[in-house]
Amino acid sequence: MNTKNTSNQAVPNYTLPLITITLLFFMWGFITCMNDILIPYLKKLFDLTFVESMLVQFCFFGAYFLGSLAYFIFSYYKGDPINKVGYKKGILSGILLSALGCILFYPAATFSAYGLFLGALFVLGLGFTILQITANAYVSLLGSEESASGRLNMTQAFNAFGTTIAPVLGGFLIFGSGNDHNITAEATRIPYLVFAGILILVAILIYNVKLPSFQTEETEHGGLGALKFLHLRLGILGIFCYVGGEVAVGSFIISFLELDNIGGLTEAVSKNYLAMYWGGAMIGRFLGAISLNQSINASKKVLYMIITAGSVFALIYSIVNLTFSQMSFFIVFLVLNFFAFMIGKSAPARTLAIFASINIVLLLLSIFTSGKMAMYSILGIGIFNSIMFSNIYTLSIAGLGKYTSQGSSLLVMAILGGALIPLIQGVLADSAFGVQKSFIVPVFCYLYILCFGVYCAKNMKFVVHTKNVSGH
């Protein structure tokens, strides 16, 4: 039942493997965020209703759910596939399947068929599902379990960098100079072929890089499998709430900022503020990678975090079409984020609980105040979302041993929250509650995340004990 590290290095050096996987996370984030470009593009191309255009996200996130469910069922009855073939082969299969999804955009565009576009997105989602199951777990294994959250925050930060620049670069690739009066299906052919080519190049790179192999011997079948671990079961709902809350807030920000009692902003201006929401997640993940790194002493952490925060803020400033005075409010959240990390003291569970608490306060301010106070509060949520996925993920799979990738498939399945929670908020937004009060839905999401963080902080000895028993 022991985990095998087949690397021959006496003192493993995981720098190159981590850099290689980080490149993959960047491309993965970039292509995922292209969905936000595809929705208005396909809506105009095929004259779709809003519900019909949202089938883009439905097919993409539906692939996550169905793919993860199939993986869990197969691993439960036949044994975990990743344990059999290894993480490297699993990652390569996910990349190649994602590349195939990108290639399928070519016939979809050639025949100008919406159903073919949705099919291509489904295949792309299946490829990313395999990457979610394998790559996240693999990063957590590239070093000590104590520093796993820091490593995953770093790779997730580059994933967020991809999502930050995708709307700018992706919009140019699809819409060109901005003249969308003559939108044609062919506009997606070359960009997605380029994405497929880059993914194949990344696969070739990973194939030729010597990655350490982590595999486990399976000697037990039946029972609950990974579900027998309580902290994993709690973490599954945690991922569901986090992804649901993050996507719901992001989906309603533009409509929220357009309200007369909030900002009365136009859609063109609101989109730039939306970039601050997602860009904040990128800043927070870079800071989290530093704060949760156990190998950096306290004084250096402070210096590195200040330099990183300033640098990434400057990067976002260069991307979005906002003046410094319009962005200056975000400095307050940077300072608050910095102190929240200090209070968290590099403990993933404690930091998770603190960040969830802050987001609850920010959401309540957004609901019960108006003007700039409400506007800035909703935009500040992104930077405190930053470390949630990686911290929930690493806390949930801690000590799972041979069940790690099976547990990872269950966590990926929970990404379904990104499809369901926004729909629930949408029902409230269409009712007498209105858009502003509908944000009570993500409040409950973050309340659960707060409870999960407190539970893990109080029961970390249980997780460590589980780790020792399972032999991980």
Can you describe this structure?
The protein is mostly helical and 472 residues long. It has helices at residues 15-33, 35-46, 50-53, 55-78, 81-85, 87-103, 105-111, 114-141, 148-175, 189-208, 230-257, 267-291, 298-319, 324-327, 330-344, 348-368, 371-379, 381-385, 388-397, 404-413, 417-430, 434-437, 440-458, 460-470; strands at 3-5, 214-216. It folds into two domains: 11-214, MFS general substrate transporter like domains (Growth Hormone, Chain: A); 223-472, Growth Hormone, Chain: A (Up-down Bundle). It has a two-stranded antiparallel ribbon with strand order 1-2. Helix 4 packs antiparallel against helix 20 (404-413), helix 12 (267-291) runs antiparallel to helix 13 (298-319) and helix 16 (348-368) crosses helix 19 (388-397). Residues 1-11, 177-181 and 462-472 have low confidence and may be disordered.
